[in-house]
Amino acid sequence: MNQDEFFKCLADRTRLDIVMMIVQEGERCVCDLTAGLGMSQPKISRHLALLRKGGILQDRRQGQWVYYRLHDSLPGWCHDVLQASAGAHSGFQQKACVDSSCCD
């Protein structure tokens, strides 16, 4: 991953909020992200698709749920930038997931 692609992908506030939530809280399901960011599932899913395509996030399925985490092959410098940014980021509220069955 080059710096241009990485920062261009994170230049959108919603995508930055998604990644910061995952960095701060770990792997998250879509319902966690929609609750925490106060946005609709289709909007969050569209941004997640761009983050996956950009190589920043990867997903895994567990039953009907999809969980997102930082991509395993994300370079160390990307992790460093994200960790440094996470401490100063406050773009989401920590709300409980609206469907607790996905978070068991």
Structural notes for this entry:
Keywords: Arsenical resistance, DNA-binding, Transcription, Transcription regulation. The protein is of the alpha+beta class and 104 residues long. The protein has one domain (3-88): Winged helix-like DNA-binding domain superfamily/Winged helix DNA-binding domain (Arc Repressor Mutant, subunit A, Orthogonal Bundle). It contains 5 helices and 3 strands; from the N terminus they run ααβααββα. It has helices at residues 3-10, 13-25, 30-37, 41-53, 76-86; strands spanning 28-29, 57-62, 65-70. Strands 1-3-2 form a 3-stranded antiparallel beta sheet. The longest helix has 13 residues, at 13-25. The chain is globular. The protein starts with a helix and ends in an 18-residue tail after the last helix. The relative contact order is 0.22. The model has no long low-confidence stretch (mean pLDDT 88).
Quickly list its features.
104 residues; WH_DNA-bd_sf; HTH arsR-type domain-containing protein; DNA-binding transcription factor activity; Arc Repressor Mutant, subunit A; DNA-binding; ArsR_HTH; three-stranded antiparallel beta sheet; alpha+beta
Rg over C-alpha atoms, rounded to the nearest angstrom: 13 Å
Number of helices: 5
CATH domain class: Mainly Alpha
Helical/strand content category:
alpha+beta
- Percentage of helical residues? 40-55%
Portion in strands: 5-15%
Biggest sheet architecture: 3 strands, antiparallel
Number of strands: 3
- In CATH terms, what is the architecture? Orthogonal Bundle
Tertiary shape: globular
CATH superfamily: Winged helix-like DNA-binding domain superfamily/Winged helix DNA-binding domain
Strand order of the largest sheet: 1-3-2
What is the N-to-C order of secondary-structure elements (H for helix, E for strand)? Answer: HHEHHEEH
Enumerate the spans where pLDDT stays under 50 for 5 or more consecutive residues. Answer: none
How widely separated are the two ends?
Answer: 34 Å
CATH topology: Arc Repressor Mutant, subunit A
- For the record, the count of structural domains works out to 1
